[in-house]
Amino acid sequence: MSRLYPIGIQSFEKIREGGYVYVDKTAWIYRLITGGNYYFLSRPRRFGKSLLISTLEAYFQGKKELFEGLSIGRLEREWMKYPVFHLDLNAQKYESVQDLANMLNMALTRWEKLYGKEDSETSPSLRFQGVIRRASETMGCKVAILVDEYDKPLLQTIGNEVLQAEYRNTLKAFYGVLKSCDQYIRFALLTGVTKFNKVSVFSDLNNLRDISMLREYENICGISEEELYRDFVPDVEALAEAGGVQLEDTYKRLKEWYDGYHFTPDGADIYNPFSLLNTFANREFGSYWFETGTPTFLVTMLKESRYNLQRLTGEVAMADSLQGINSMSNNPVPYLYQSGYLTIKGYNREFQVYELGFPNKEVEEGFTKFLLPCYAHLDSGNTAFELMSFVKEVREGNIEGFMHRLQSFFADIPYEMTRDLELHYQNVLFIVFKLLGFYTQVEYHTSQGRIDLVLKTDNYIYVMEFKLEGTAEEAIRQIEEKNYALPFASDSRKLYKIGINFSNQIRGIEAWKAVSNS
Question: Which residues contact 393 (CB under 8 A, 6 or more apart)?
Fold first, then answer.
């Protein structure tokens, strides 16, 4: 009998009553509830934040029956019912000042129908403060406040400083109620993708504990390897059978594609839950998380900050920069980390910096494919076609074909890129050869003054050298003088030495020259 997977279902009650697969996170949740009062949690999109909020809502509503058989059902001795204020900011597009006002008004009106309203409460913050106080006084207990995707209005207005400032001022006052109403609040959790330091919910609320990078809560969202082997054995077996491969190989591929998220140094490997569940439901591997959408402002941010894309494979960052965002345009790394495109790979204790990289193949391949049309010119406008054609030409030894295609990638360079053409050349080359590396063996070396690259296929080896404002002949001469091809002298594959010259005048590849070893 096939199992039910809660794909797109964020209601804890619906999952439990509907018999859907559920990974028991309630021990972590009980620790959260009993360990403090005010929390913030940052996790990438579709990582289980909304389900966490829903689970907490069911707990504070006293729905004991939903927790039977789970850890918290054994841990909790006294089940109480609290007034719960659940605000979900995810279900709205924020394009005008009124959009945020409407969302807050809708929630406040719903709560005021239960707990009343006073005429003097005119602003969202005053109304929120009033309804919290009356709920606590009416019910004779403190309240629980759960905010899902607190940062959605701010993320959607990146690039629109005027509107974002309006939202920031509104939310500053609204979230500030958590401090002024402390005597009425039993528990509060705010979740989001990012932590905006300029929002005073973080600068003023010194009682809000950020658990995003704490070891004790690293597995409160997502699926650990222990949970995969404990709760999903029949699912992995069915996936292996559907693909006609061994069980061990299926586990290895799941790890390669969806594992690798780390929220603490030397922490547990966390699998992407959305991709994992989709893979089990469809019994087929795919880029499920990535295909749900990458924000366009991310590319704008990378370009405006003059970010060298080669750093994606070996980025470093200070701890405090990863835990908050001040200026998105000046430093995109915190957002790349918090939104799940980069993850913690290690920690350098001497310099106290985190080492970052892609978490897994789904993100690495998906993000690189996403970047190609954003940086390179595609004649067909079709990323998949251009990539497939390029790979086929490289595999077939069609140097004329793949060099013409590479040359076309640099056509129509946008005006904003002309101020730093060399960086643009490097970024396009990184994207192209990073993608090629998923289908062939690529060794990409850079140092001051030169770039050399080696491509290996079943039948060919290409040793390539790139020059800027030089000549293709000079590039070939450097390959010869530096003996770049020497390591492959005894290789039976056909070897080509390719020299390529970039010209700023034509803003692209001016000439190339290929020499074979036969």
Answer: 401, 402, 405
Q: pLDDT tens digit string along 352-375?
A: 899 999 999 999 999 999 999 999
DSSP secondary structure, 369-384, as one string: HHHHHHHS--SSS-HH
Q: In DSSP terms, which residues pair with 66 in a beta bridge?
A: none
DSSP 8-state secondary structure symbol assigned to residue 323: T
Structural contact between residues 111 and 85, judged by C-beta atoms closer than 8 angstroms = yes
Is the pTM above the cut of 0.85? yes
Closest among 481, 482, 509, 515 to 496, alpha carbons compared: 515
Residues 6+ apart with CB under 8 A from 350: none
CA 162 – CA 168 distance, rounded (Å): 10
Taking the alpha carbons of 379, 450, 360, 315 in that order, is the dihedral positive or negative?
A: negative
Strand order in the sheet with 494-503: 441-447, 450-456, 460-468, 494-503, 508-516
Q: Please report the beta strands in 22-140, taking only residues with DSSP state E, as ranges in sequence order.
A: 38-42, 84-88
pLDDT tens string 257-267 = 999 999 998 88
Phi and psi of 130, rounded to 5°? -65, -40
Half-sphere exposure of 368 (CA within 13 A, CB side): 26
